[in-house]
Amino acid sequence: MLSKIKELEEIALQLEPEAEARQVIRDIVIDYSENFLSELAQANTYVDKESNPEAIIQSAFSEEGRDMADLVEMVRLHVDTPGINPASGGHLGYIPGGGLFPSSLADYLAAVTNRYAGIFYANPGAVRMENMIIQWLNELMGYPKTAAGNLASGGSIANLIAITTARDAHLPHSSQFESAVIYLSGQAHHCLHKALRIAGLGQAILREVPLDDHFRMIPSELESMIQQDKAKGLSPFMIIASAGTTDVGAIDPLDQLADLSAQYQLWFHIDAAYGGFFMLCPEFRPLFKGMERSDSMVIDPHKGLFLPYGIGVVLVRDADKMRASHYYQANYMQDAALHQDEISPTELSPELTKHFRGLRMWMPLKLFGLKPFRAALEEKVWLTRYFHQQLSQRKRFELGPNPQLSVTYFRYLPVSGDVNEFNKKLMEEIHKDGRVFLSSTLLQGQFYIRLAVLCFRTHLSTIDRCLEMIDEKIDLLEKKLQVSS
Ligand SMILES: *Cc1c(COP(=O)(O)O)cnc(C)c1O
Question: With a threshold of 0.85, does the pTM exceed it?
Answer without folding.
Answer: yes
